[in-house]
Write a structure and sequence with these properties.
The protein is of the alpha+beta class. The protein is built from 7 helices and 8 strands. The strands form 2 sheets. The chain has a 4-stranded antiparallel β-sheet. A 4-stranded antiparallel β-sheet has the order 6-7-5-8. Strand 6 and strand 7 (135-140) form a beta hairpin. Helix 3 (79-87) packs across helix 7. The longest helix has 16 residues, at 53-68. It is globular and about 45 Å long. The chain starts with a strand and ends with a helix.
Protein backbone atom coordinates (compact mmCIF):
# COMPACT_ATOMS: atom_id res chain seq x y z
CA UNK A 1 0.00 0.00 0.00
CA UNK A 2 1.20 3.47 -0.82
CA UNK A 3 -0.08 6.93 0.11
CA UNK A 4 -1.88 8.88 -2.63
CA UNK A 5 -3.56 12.27 -2.82
CA UNK A 6 -6.47 12.83 -5.19
CA UNK A 7 -7.16 16.38 -6.30
CA UNK A 8 -10.79 16.53 -7.39
CA UNK A 9 -12.22 19.13 -9.74
CA UNK A 10 -15.67 20.65 -9.14
CA UNK A 11 -16.05 19.77 -5.48
CA UNK A 12 -17.75 22.49 -3.42
CA UNK A 13 -17.66 25.07 -6.20
CA UNK A 14 -20.27 26.09 -8.73
CA UNK A 15 -23.20 24.86 -6.68
CA UNK A 16 -21.84 21.33 -6.16
CA UNK A 17 -21.71 20.97 -2.40
CA UNK A 18 -20.48 17.57 -1.30
CA UNK A 19 -19.99 16.58 2.32
CA UNK A 20 -16.49 15.33 3.04
CA UNK A 21 -17.90 12.34 4.96
CA UNK A 22 -19.78 11.32 1.82
CA UNK A 23 -16.62 11.59 -0.30
CA UNK A 24 -14.71 9.54 2.25
CA UNK A 25 -17.38 6.81 2.12
CA UNK A 26 -17.28 6.76 -1.70
CA UNK A 27 -13.49 6.31 -1.68
CA UNK A 28 -13.77 3.58 0.97
CA UNK A 29 -16.36 1.79 -1.21
CA UNK A 30 -13.57 1.41 -3.79
CA UNK A 31 -11.51 -0.55 -1.24
CA UNK A 32 -9.14 2.36 -0.63
CA UNK A 33 -7.71 2.47 2.89
CA UNK A 34 -7.04 5.16 5.51
CA UNK A 35 -9.15 7.67 3.60
CA UNK A 36 -8.95 11.27 4.84
CA UNK A 37 -10.08 14.61 3.48
CA UNK A 38 -8.08 17.81 3.67
CA UNK A 39 -10.11 21.03 3.71
CA UNK A 40 -13.48 20.90 1.99
CA UNK A 41 -12.26 21.46 -1.54
CA UNK A 42 -11.70 17.99 -2.94
CA UNK A 43 -8.36 16.84 -1.54
CA UNK A 44 -8.59 13.17 -0.62
CA UNK A 45 -5.71 11.24 0.92
CA UNK A 46 -5.74 7.45 0.87
CA UNK A 47 -3.67 4.30 0.72
CA UNK A 48 -3.94 2.09 -2.35
CA UNK A 49 -2.23 -0.97 -3.70
CA UNK A 50 0.49 -0.27 -6.20
CA UNK A 51 -0.76 -0.21 -9.75
CA UNK A 52 -1.80 2.08 -12.53
CA UNK A 53 -2.65 5.56 -11.30
CA UNK A 54 -4.54 6.18 -14.57
CA UNK A 55 -6.78 3.18 -13.92
CA UNK A 56 -7.38 4.34 -10.37
CA UNK A 57 -8.28 7.85 -11.58
CA UNK A 58 -10.81 6.37 -14.03
CA UNK A 59 -12.27 4.11 -11.34
CA UNK A 60 -12.71 7.05 -8.94
CA UNK A 61 -14.17 9.30 -11.67
CA UNK A 62 -16.73 6.61 -12.61
CA UNK A 63 -17.73 6.12 -8.96
CA UNK A 64 -18.08 9.85 -8.34
CA UNK A 65 -20.03 10.41 -11.56
CA UNK A 66 -22.49 7.68 -10.63
CA UNK A 67 -22.87 8.84 -7.02
CA UNK A 68 -22.89 12.62 -7.57
CA UNK A 69 -24.50 12.85 -11.00
CA UNK A 70 -21.79 14.96 -12.63
CA UNK A 71 -18.26 14.58 -13.92
CA UNK A 72 -15.47 14.98 -11.36
CA UNK A 73 -12.06 15.02 -13.00
CA UNK A 74 -9.56 13.32 -10.69
CA UNK A 75 -5.81 13.90 -10.58
CA UNK A 76 -3.80 11.54 -8.38
CA UNK A 77 -0.28 12.11 -7.09
CA UNK A 78 1.74 10.10 -4.60
CA UNK A 79 2.80 11.80 -1.40
CA UNK A 80 6.38 11.86 -2.78
CA UNK A 81 5.15 13.62 -5.94
CA UNK A 82 3.27 16.21 -3.86
CA UNK A 83 6.43 16.87 -1.86
CA UNK A 84 8.41 17.32 -5.10
CA UNK A 85 5.74 19.70 -6.44
CA UNK A 86 5.86 21.73 -3.22
CA UNK A 87 9.67 21.91 -3.32
CA UNK A 88 9.93 22.86 -7.00
CA UNK A 89 10.89 26.50 -7.58
CA UNK A 90 9.42 27.60 -10.93
CA UNK A 91 10.02 31.33 -10.53
CA UNK A 92 12.81 33.50 -9.11
CA UNK A 93 12.47 34.25 -5.39
CA UNK A 94 12.13 37.98 -6.14
CA UNK A 95 8.99 37.31 -8.19
CA UNK A 96 7.48 35.01 -5.55
CA UNK A 97 8.17 37.46 -2.71
CA UNK A 98 6.02 40.12 -4.37
CA UNK A 99 3.36 37.79 -5.78
CA UNK A 100 -0.17 37.77 -4.43
CA UNK A 101 -0.69 34.09 -5.25
CA UNK A 102 1.02 30.97 -6.53
CA UNK A 103 -1.30 28.24 -7.78
CA UNK A 104 -0.67 24.74 -9.03
CA UNK A 105 -2.74 23.37 -11.89
CA UNK A 106 -2.91 19.57 -11.84
CA UNK A 107 -3.17 17.80 -15.20
CA UNK A 108 -3.71 14.18 -16.20
CA UNK A 109 -0.76 14.20 -18.62
CA UNK A 110 2.16 16.48 -19.46
CA UNK A 111 1.35 19.20 -21.98
CA UNK A 112 2.57 18.88 -25.55
CA UNK A 113 4.48 21.79 -27.13
CA UNK A 114 1.36 23.22 -28.80
CA UNK A 115 -0.51 23.32 -25.48
CA UNK A 116 2.50 24.89 -23.74
CA UNK A 117 2.53 27.67 -26.33
CA UNK A 118 -1.20 28.24 -25.84
CA UNK A 119 -0.67 28.49 -22.09
CA UNK A 120 2.20 30.95 -22.48
CA UNK A 121 -0.03 33.07 -24.75
CA UNK A 122 -2.19 33.68 -21.64
CA UNK A 123 0.64 35.53 -19.89
CA UNK A 124 -0.12 39.10 -18.87
CA UNK A 125 1.71 41.76 -16.93
CA UNK A 126 0.33 40.21 -13.72
CA UNK A 127 0.11 36.51 -14.67
CA UNK A 128 2.96 34.17 -15.51
CA UNK A 129 3.12 30.42 -16.05
CA UNK A 130 5.62 27.61 -15.86
CA UNK A 131 5.06 23.99 -16.85
CA UNK A 132 6.83 21.13 -15.10
CA UNK A 133 5.75 17.54 -15.55
CA UNK A 134 1.99 17.25 -15.13
CA UNK A 135 1.71 20.57 -13.31
CA UNK A 136 1.20 24.17 -14.29
CA UNK A 137 2.60 26.77 -11.93
CA UNK A 138 0.68 30.05 -12.15
CA UNK A 139 1.94 33.12 -10.34
CA UNK A 140 -0.36 36.13 -10.02
CA UNK A 141 1.43 39.33 -9.05
CA UNK A 142 -1.74 41.16 -7.97
CA UNK A 143 -4.98 40.00 -6.39
CA UNK A 144 -6.44 37.08 -8.32
CA UNK A 145 -9.64 39.07 -8.67
CA UNK A 146 -7.59 41.46 -10.87
CA UNK A 147 -6.63 38.59 -13.17
CA UNK A 148 -8.63 37.29 -16.11
CA UNK A 149 -7.16 33.81 -15.54
CA UNK A 150 -9.16 30.99 -13.99
CA UNK A 151 -9.24 27.22 -14.17
CA UNK A 152 -11.88 27.52 -16.92
CA UNK A 153 -9.65 29.91 -18.91
CA UNK A 154 -6.76 27.46 -18.68
CA UNK A 155 -8.92 24.48 -19.65
CA UNK A 156 -10.39 26.28 -22.67
CA UNK A 157 -6.97 27.36 -23.90
CA UNK A 158 -5.43 23.91 -23.50
CA UNK A 159 -8.39 21.69 -24.32
CA UNK A 160 -7.77 19.52 -21.24
CA UNK A 161 -9.21 19.24 -17.75
CA UNK A 162 -7.31 20.59 -14.77
CA UNK A 163 -7.84 21.62 -11.19
CA UNK A 164 -6.10 24.39 -9.28
CA UNK A 165 -4.79 24.45 -5.73
CA UNK A 166 -3.03 27.26 -3.93
CA UNK A 167 0.59 26.63 -3.04
CA UNK A 168 -0.27 26.94 0.66
CA UNK A 169 -2.58 23.93 0.35
CA UNK A 170 0.05 21.93 -1.56
CA UNK A 171 2.70 22.84 1.03
CA UNK A 172 0.45 21.76 3.91
CA UNK A 173 -0.32 18.44 2.19
CA UNK A 174 3.39 17.88 1.55
CA UNK A 175 4.24 18.61 5.19
CA UNK A 176 1.46 16.47 6.60
CA UNK A 177 2.01 13.44 4.37
CA UNK A 178 5.77 13.52 3.68
Amino acid sequence: MSKHIAFLRAINVGGHNVKMDHLRQLFESLDLKNVETFIASGNIIFDAKSGSTKNLEKKIEACLHEALGYEVATFIRTNAEVTAIANYKPFPPSKLETAAALNIGFLADPLNEDAKQKLMALRTEIDDFHVHGREIYWVCLKKQSDSKISNVTIEKALGVKSTLRGMNTVNKLAEKYA
